[in-house]
Design brief:
binds pyridoxal-5'-phosphate; 405 residues; four-stranded mixed sheet; Aspartate Aminotransferase, domain 1; alpha/beta
């Protein structure tokens, strides 16, 4: 296996906008949880395209669905609906709290729709003063200007001119701060039930209950951003299902397409009716190719066997990481849920998550970080046991190298 050697990493700096700093490796082929680069070097994939490739690379159910739809119908625009979109919306509504679905192409777009819907709903029902959006420190909701402004890192939204207004950021899991900030002018509370990019930080059950009850008291909507936690990642179809809280709006993307761009915003009929004809839209939202892949993803992921398999694999990761830690003493904690796992570096290795990632690449392992202190793993939900074992052995070698300096 080899790629086109005329295409090199050096060209990236010549022809691409410099907003990313990709590694020297250029992957050309993937199968299951293994990936090969231009040189034929093999990697085990514990990153899953950042929680996207929920069934690994080139899963036969997904390539089959894409090929079949690719020979039938590619695109229509929203002047007509299509069968894959109708089927996917029906799957999503029949397996969640939701009654209505809006399709988009990315997590940020689904969140943008959720925020616009919340603002419109509040305006229609309660008037213009009810526009406050409450969000949380370290939250990540995407990179459009509205979603990045709602996200909890000002550095990502600074430097682009005047920001969308009436957004309040609070410490995550702080009930007292929420009680103090919320009022009848609050239109929505937006959060990730388990913060991903922010460092794999779970919402306390008591905090979630307070979010729900305070929102109800003040007629505010609860928006769960499940772009990273959704579609089996935590061992439930959606993470809210293992909490006592049901949101009013939920967004999904990443794993929903298993590597094909698609996103969805889910809500109730009562709320959805405020997105009247012409209020919002997307050229590609509900595209037949994307929805055909989404149907194939849900067919494989949304069954007890796959979801139970996520919890078994979580155990293997936890045990393997604990063993590595017993030997090398690098983590203060292994946290997260299902196959959204964060290994938190202890004070000796503070701020050095990237060193572990780079060392892993050297050993033939793809991993992720979540902030400077957390090594993150979001592998395929169906990664074979042998690949977990082999990947953890490679990770151990990487850890040994970092520890040895
Ligand atoms: C990745 C992510 C997003 C943004 O999704 P894009 O597809 O990159 O726009 C939003 N919210 C959460 C929680 C995410 O993890």
């Amino acid at each position: 296996m080899s790629g086109n050697k005329n295409l090199t990493r050096a060209q990236f700096d010549e022809v691409m906008v410099p907003n990313y700093a990709p590694s020297a490796v250029i992957p050309v082929k993937g199968e299951g949880s293994r990936v090969w680069d231009q040189e034929g070097k093999e990697f085990i994939d514990f990153a899953g395209g950042i929680a996207v490739n929920c069934l690994g690379h080139c899963h036969p159910a997904l390539t089959g669905a894409l090929q079949e739809q690719g020979n039938k119908l590619w695109h229509l625009a929203n002047v007509m609906t299509n069968e894959p979109a109708l089927e996917l919306a029906t799957r999503l509504t029949s397996s969640t709290f939701a009654e209505k679905v809006y399709f988009a192409n990315s997590g940020a777009e689904a969140n943008e729709a959720a925020l616009k819907l919340a603002r419109r709903y509040a305006l229609d029902k309660f008037g213009a003063e009810k526009d406050q959006i409450i969000a949380f420190d370290k939250a990540f909701h995407g990179r459009t200007f509205f979603t990045v402004s709602v996200g909890g890192q000002a550095a990502y939204s600074d430097g682009f001119g005047p920001k969308p207004q009436s957004i309040t950021h609070l410490p995550f899991n702080d009930v007292a701060a929420l009680e103090a900030a919320i009022s009848d002018n609050t239109c929505a509370i937006m959060l990730e039930p388990l913060q991903g990019e922010g460092g794999i930080i779970d919402a306390d059950p008591e905090f979630l209950k307070a979010v729900r009850s305070l929102a109800d008291k003040h007629n505010a909507l609860v928006i769960f951003d499940e772009v990273q936690t959704g579609v089996g990642r935590t061992g439930e179809l959606f993470a809210y299902m293992s909490t006592d809280v049901v949101p009013d709006i939920l967004t999904s993307a990443k794993a929903l397409g298993g590597g094909f761009p698609i996103a969805a915003m889910l809500t109730t009929t009562e709320i959805a009716k405020h997105l009247k004809i012409g209020t919002h839209g997307s050229t590609y939202g509900g595209n037949p190719l994307a929805c055909a892949v989404g149907n194939a993803v849900l067919e494989v992921v949304n069954n007890e066997q796959t979801l139970a398999g996520v919890k078994q694999r979580e155990q293997m990761f936890r045990e393997g990481l604990t063993k590595i830690n017993d030997k090398y003493d690098v983590f203060s904690e292994v946290r997260g849920k299902g196959l959204l796992i964060g290994a938190v570096l202890n004070s000796k290795f503070e701020g050095r998550a990237r060193d572990f990632l780079v060392a892993s690449v050297g050993e033939g392992l793809m991993s992720l970080i979540a902030g400077a202190n957390v090594v993150r793993f979001t592998p395929s939900l169906v990664i074979p046991e042998a690949d977990i074992k082999e990947g953890l052995e490679r990770f151990e070698r990487a850890v040994a190298k970092v520890v040895a300096g």
